[in-house]
Design brief:
Largest sheet: 5 strands, mixed
Strand order of the largest sheet: 7-6-5-8-9
Helix content: 40-55%
Radius of gyration: 28 Å
Distance between the termini: 63 Å
Strand content: 5-15%
Number of helices: 17
Shape: elongated
Order of helices and strands: HHEEEEHHHEEEHEHEHHHHHHHHHHEEEE
Number of strands: 13
Structural class: alpha+beta
Length: about 425
């Protein structure tokens, strides 16, 4: 195997014009070799773990048994040929199964992960082969019928996911947004209603994905009622754009949840009501508001903004008229502010969809589009990082008081003692 790697590298050096091709082939061969070595190491670990299991004659009952028939597997480095090591396990009910290369697997999960992204970017099923052939070196196994089968499987996976039990999970914060993208075979654009939550350990998790209308209270109410009926408790704070029908639904289904408007959306709304010549100055003035260190400083910045741009009352009213929901984040840990001022976790995930070109074809149907959106979010959440100050999230759920981002002392009514925030905890 090492000789193959050496030969591939030598060919590339001898032919500079083929350097890129040689490099790709080198990566593919190296991946093939590493997979073979890893599979052997996995089998060796299994055999060593059961080396002391003997039959009545003193012979080992878990032994290596050659190799399975060679098969091709599509990976991020291209198609690789591999012979999986076999194990003969004579124990009743026991069987060796490779975690690296499960039986019948023909493509890496990472390859499957990229398909919904391409679909949402506008590739039709017939475009997948040519698009991936240049990247993976082969279009084997990526026919239109294969993609259709994957889409059907993802639709079934989405339906199962939407009915999962949520009584044992808790979300302290929510971000909510509606994301539009085109449907190739229908006139209406699909709006994907998305909720992402923060669990008590600070990790972000996809909570809900549904087809609906962004400004419709009824659409959002259906989503929230289903979540409530499946055991979801009211989050402490929800973040979203003010134009969402989400807020009316939230007040009906989870009335105790506080509201925080997204400053990114609100800034865009303000600028839309102003001439372009003042956009840079107005944008900086708005940033002074949500970037203030205290609520008092923010209110001073609000008054300054209103005075400087008084000739644009419609724009200034978008700030001055909703201060309660725009400045709610000041009542939560300062470490969380960067996360609570916008719906960035959803926006960044769908950035590739929003930036697609005018020639984007979109998914073929609403069902396929929803399945692709779900798979895109499901794949993305594995890379979402915990929010800053994650250790403070349980305090928020417990009802701790924060003023200008700082945890406040709580006095015990019965004993008259004071529990400070020096240890990062509050009295029960």
């Amino acid at each position: 195997m090492l000789k193959l790697v050496h030969d591939a590298a030598a060919d590339a050096v001898d032919d500079p014009e083929a350097m890129m091709v040689g490099l790709d082939e080198l990566c593919r061969v190296a991946a093939q070799e590493m997979l073979a070595v890893a599979l052997l190491a996995e089998r060796r670990a299994y055999l060593d773990a059961h080396a002391d299991v003997l039959d009545e004659g003193g012979r080992r009952v878990v032994v290596g048994n050659g190799y399975a028939r060679e098969r091709s597997v599509m990976t991020g480095a291209g198609m690789v040929d591999v012979k999986a090591p076999r194990v003969e396990d004579q124990r009743e009910g026991e069987r060796f199964s490779s975690a690296l290369l499960p039986a019948y697997m023909r493509r890496s999960p990472k390859v499957t992960e990229v398909l919904p992204l391409l679909y949402l970017r506008g590739l039709s099923t017939g475009d997948f082969g040519p698009a991936l052939e240049g990247f993976f070196g082969s279009k084997a196994g990526l026919s239109a019928s294969t993609i259709c089968r994957l889409t059907e499987a993802w639709q079934a996976e989405l339906e199962e996911w939407k009915s999962r039990d949520l009584s044992d999970v808790d979300y302290v914060y929510w971000w909510a947004d509606g994301v539009h993208f085109n449907i190739r075979l229908e006139e209406d654009r699909l709006c994907c209603l998305v909720i992402v939550g923060v669990r008590p350990d600070g990790t972000k998790e996809l909570v809900a994905v549904a087809d609906g209308y962004r400004e419709s209270t009824d659409s959002w109410a259906d989503v929230l009622r289903l979540l409530r009926d499946r055991g979801v408790a009211a989050p402490v704070l929800a973040v979203g754009d003010g134009a969402l029908g989400f807020w009316g639904a939230l007040r009906d289904v989870f009335p105790s949840t506080r509201e925080q408007r997204c400053w990114v959306h609100r800034t865009a709304n303000c600028l839309d009501a102003m001439p372009k010549r003042v956009h840079p100055e107005a944008k900086a003035a708005i940033a002074d508001i949500y970037g203030a260190e205290t609520r008092a400083d923010a209110l001073v910045a609000v008054q300054s903004f209103a005075d400087r741009f008084a000739e644009f009352p419609k724009a200034t009213a978008k700030i001055t008229g909703e201060l309660d929901t725009l400045l709610a984040f000041f009542d939560f840990p300062a470490e969380h502010w960067v996360h609570l001022r916008s719906t960035n976790p959803i926006e960044s995930t769908f950035a590739t969809v929003r930036l697609r070109t005018k020639v984007t074809k979109g998914a073929g149907s609403r069902e396929a589009g929803m399945a692709m959106a779900f798979k895109l979010l499901d794949a993305a959440q594995a890379r979402w990082r915990r929010i800053n100050g994650h250790e403070l999230v349980p305090l928020v759920r417990a009802g701790a008081t924060f003023i200008d981002g700082k945890l406040q002392e709580r006095k015990e009514a019965q004993t008259g003692t004071t529990d400070t925030n020096k240890t990062g905890s509050i009295a029960a």
